[in-house]
Design a protein that fits this description.
Blueprint lengths: L1 E5 L5 E5 L10 E10 L2 H4 L18 E8 L11 E4 L9 H4 L9 H5 L10 E5 L3 E3 L6 H4 L2 H14 L6 E5 L3 H12 L3 E6 L2 H9 L4 E4 L5 H8 L5 E6 L6 H11 E9 L14 H6 L3 E4 L5 E2 L2 E2 H10 L9 E6 L3 H9 L1 H4 L3 E5 L1
Parallel strand pairs: 8-9, 8-11, 9-10, 11-12, 12-13, 16-17
Antiparallel strand pairs: 1-2, 3-4, 3-6, 3-17, 4-5, 5-7, 14-15
Helix pairs in contact: 5-6, 5-11, 8-9
Pfam families: ADH_N (PF08240), ADH_zinc_N (PF00107)
InterPro entries: ADH-like_C, ADH-like_N, ADH_Zn_CS, ER, GroES-like_sf, NAD(P)-bd_dom_sf, Zn_alcohol_dh
Family: Belongs to the zinc-containing alcohol dehydrogenase family.
Amino acid sequence: MKAALKTAEGTFQVTEAERPIIPAPHFVLARVRVAGICGTDLRHWKKHDPALECHIMGHELAGEAVEVGEAVTNVKPGDRVVIETVMGDGVCEYCRIQRYNICEHLYDVRTQYVSRAYAEYVVGPAEKFYRLPDHVSFEEASLIDTFSVCLHAQHLSGLGINDKVAVIGAGPIGLGQMMLAKASGADVVICDLVQGSLDLAKELGADAVVNAAEEDAVERVKAFTGGRGADIVFECAGGESMPQTLPQATKMVRRGGKVVIVGGFDAGETTIPLEWQRIQMSEIQLIPSASFAMHDIYREQGMVLDLIAKGRIDVEKLITHRFSLDQINEAFDTADRKEETGAVFVAISI
């Protein structure tokens, strides 16, 4: 099969790779049709990482079931599917209570199977495959992973109707966080440095937008909330921005409020000074959020698919650029230079 392999320089080489085979009766082989570029993948762009060299990456994908194991009953060959890529070892204490998103072997397991979107074929257990309604496109389905991350964070936040919410970061995750909060009846202000992303946020329903390169974001959020501060702040920028955005989030939130950490950290120790006395005395809660899994009896990825299918969130407007797999390096470069290109969600046709 054709696949994009990570190089030593951190770019991709499109070449031939071994097509995966079904390893167990409950597994499914799928043909990938569309894959997205996630901020996590983007942080490895043009960076030397021996652990990723010659590996297939990507974890936002949709496609068609091609072959199913003899024990599979929920999908059949020819079905259009979206594929969940949060996959633990299935046997640890956390997997047993369906908190597989914090399985200590999550990365090792998912990258062996479902988390290989930049290739023509993937395999995974049938429970990770969701049939797509005819009116939900492959491109829309490739955004379900993104919105599932947002939905998990919202569930952890306890967000309720009429809450005052601030979102830091207007990339796909931040915009998704804003859209879900609005769909739940909250008032939302969103902050970013890229005006094009903020313009899109306004189009998608944000009550207010703040260009943090031109304005004091903390003061704008306080003004938006009548001087009190936001009930909930979602930090959705992450990465190299975190030393600036996490302290900013703790200053935007009201006393007794919550800061949900959605944006990702780089590996290793990260030192970020915070006003711990004020945080403690104000009983501000810092809530880390990691990927997604289950909400009560419901799979969060299935919940997002249902929201899209019912038209409760319109995800298509987030797709700003489209490329083929052969153009994957151009796609990543476009996503990386979002200030110049206006990229939000970049879709890759496989």
